[in-house]
Design a protein that fits this description.
- With 264 residues, the protein is mostly helical.
- It has one domain (25-260).
- It is built from twelve helices and two strands.
- It has a two-stranded parallel sheet.
- The longest helix has 37 residues, at 113-149.
- Keywords: Membrane, Transmembrane, Transmembrane helix.
- The chain crosses the membrane at residues 43-62, 74-96, 117-142, 162-183, 190-210, 239-259.
Length: 264
């Protein structure tokens, strides 16, 4: 009598998958769509475009009729609205995964969170460039209209001023990204973005030691020469210190928190 035994099958080691991840172009497309995927973001976009055109139109009718229309005035009015509202759209998109509880879905399809953050950043910069171009086009249109009602148009525009607006827009968008990635809450990020620099500016008016270093650590004061196209060495040193405090440090902490936070 013989006994038969079934050989024990040892577990096999898992094999690495060769299936490629989500292409970055597709990831970027998704993040671009998220920027305007909510009703709030679309409303802010409409307000931004309508507000820029409204301010430029008011300049046509309320400005001095005896002097030529100033193209730079129309451009500055439109860019003021863009500088204020584009970072809000970026904050809404950055906090969307956590405030709308879609983080599990997002990071399940793309576990490498750094790629998601990179796509968000590039999408935000792309929207910033498009917004600046739209404002430029509307400024040209309103300047032509203003020139028809006044003695011509002065088209003189300094390249350093244009560069200053672009640099400032990039800095504000980066600050919005940093606060959104750090706080993961839309309301908290918006309050911190608008109120923190404002509160610090008020404190410098009452606290002497802060007043002495305000040119270096106050974001509003340190970066204001950039809007005027002032890129001298002293200006850039002061701006670099303020940007490090208000943008770089929150951004690094935000990336660290986003990568390490547990998704529930």
């Amino acid at each position: 009598m013989t006994s038969t035994s079934t050989p024990t099958q040892l577990p096999t080691a898992p094999t690495a998958t060769t299936q490629p991840g989500i292409p970055f172009a597709r990831l970027l497309t998704v993040e671009m769509r998220k920027l305007f995927d909510t009703r709030a973001a679309r409303i802010i976009l409409i307000i931004m475009v309508a507000g820029a055109i409204a301010l430029q139109t008011l300049e046509i009718f309320l400005g001095d009729k005896d002097v030529p229309a100033q193209f730079t005035s129309y451009l500055e009015l439109g860019m003021t609205v863009v500088l204020m509202l584009v970072p809000v759209i970026v904050i809404l998109a950055t906090t969307a995964e956590w405030s709308q509880r879609t983080a599990m879905t997002t990071f399940m399809w793309e576990p490498r969170r750094s790629r998601v953050l990179t796509a968000k950043g590039i999408a935000a910069l792309a929207v910033s460039v498009v917004s600046a171009v739209v404002v430029l086009v509307t400024a040209v249109g309103t300047a032509v209209m203003g020139g028809a009602m006044r003695p011509g148009v002065e088209w003189g525009l300094s390249g350093s001023v244009v560069l200053g607006y672009v640099v400032m827009l990039v800095l504000l968008v980066a600050q919005g990204l940093a606060y959104g990635a750090l706080l993961h809450n839309t309301a908290a990020a918006l309050v911190a973005y608008f109120m923190a620099p404002m509160v610090f500016t008020l404190l410098t008016a009452f606290i002497a030691p802060l007043r002495e270093v305000a040119d270096w650590v106050d974001f509003n004061i340190a970066t204001s020469p950039i809007l005027a196209g002032d890129f001298t060495g002293d200006t850039m040193q002061r701006a670099a210190v303020a940007v490090t405090i208000w943008v770089v440090v929150p951004g690094v902490l935000g990336v660290w928190r986003t990568i390490r936070r547990e998704v529930k």
